[in-house]
Amino acid sequence: YLVLKDYFIQQLRGIFEHVAIPPHVSDKLDHGDFDTIVCGPKGNLASLPDLKSLQAILQSSYLTTITHSTEANTHATRRPSHSQKRFVQVDVQLYDAPSQFEWKVFSYAYGDLYNILKIGVQPFGFTLRPSGLFLRIAEIDAINKDASPVFLTNDVQLVLEFFGLDFQRYNQGFDNLEELFGYATSSHLFSRLQFSLQNASLKPGTSPSKRSKRASWVQFTEQWLPSHPEIGTTFDENDKSTIHANALQIFDREPLYWKKLNAFR
Q1: Same domain, 160 and 72
Q2: Distances (CA, A) of 79 to 30, 59, 82, 119, 196
């Protein structure tokens, strides 16, 4: 895996300014594919990389294109320098804005770190979205949830530090899921409340989401979290106003917050 990872990164750096394959926990034994994040096409590829060129660079035998708000190109590529036809899947996701690059890597890093934080901070009124960290304005949220979020930042370091998490520890990586779960839930904004509510609202026969099928997610929600009943129990509704005021000050979003709220009123 590591040999192929380095190979694909090296190849893609020839045509993109920014290339990353988000990190996994060290003891991960199987890898379904290579989720590759790229940004900033070089040279003649400034508008959009020529898919045939990309296919040639990755030595891909098969190529499919999936277009959403971003470009996700799935390649089945033969293992380099291997005599037998063994293929691996490489998902290349192209993003237009360099400012989104690190955030997108963060959203994939270490499997479920992002998802644990996303659900864990919801009771405090924060939400993690594809474009960054947002704060929901409670007064608006009660009437129009789509209109309530205020953008705070997409700076990964600032977000983790605001959550009370060590950014250097994040960059060092995690040897196993135990370390990852401990890190994510050590945030002073982590609450188990939303996990309990989601489990309670899941009706019998409901089809599980893609996230809930993953072994690591099942291990966290059904084994690790229940075995640590003391974690995430300090949520207090009365603390939210102070935490919100602190967030608006740290991220310099007070003017935007009040402008949006006053316009709603």
Answers
A1: no
A2: 16, 9, 6, 38, 44
> What's the rounded Cα separation, in Å, for the pair 247 and 261?
16
Residue 220's domain comprises 111-264
C-alpha distances (whole Å) from 167 to each of 37, 170, 172, 205, 210 are: 20, 5, 9, 40, 28
- Single residue among 77, 103, 129 that ends a domain in this structure: 103
The reply to whether 66 and 186 lie within a common domain is: no
Both 99 and 115 in one domain: the answer is no
Give the long-range contacts of residues 102-109, CB within 8 A, separation 24 or more.
Answer: 102/154, 102/155, 102/156, 103/130, 103/131, 103/132, 103/154, 103/156, 104/37, 104/130, 105/20, 105/22, 105/37, 105/156, 106/22, 106/156, 108/22, 108/35, 108/37, 109/22, 109/23, 109/170
Q: What is the pLDDT of residues 116-165, one digit of tens each?
A: 999 999 999 999 999 999 999 999 999 999 999 999 999 999 999 999 99
Mean pLDDT (the chain, rounded): 82
How many structural domains is the chain composed of? 2
**159 Cβ neighbours under 8 A, 6+ residues apart:** 132, 133, 152, 153
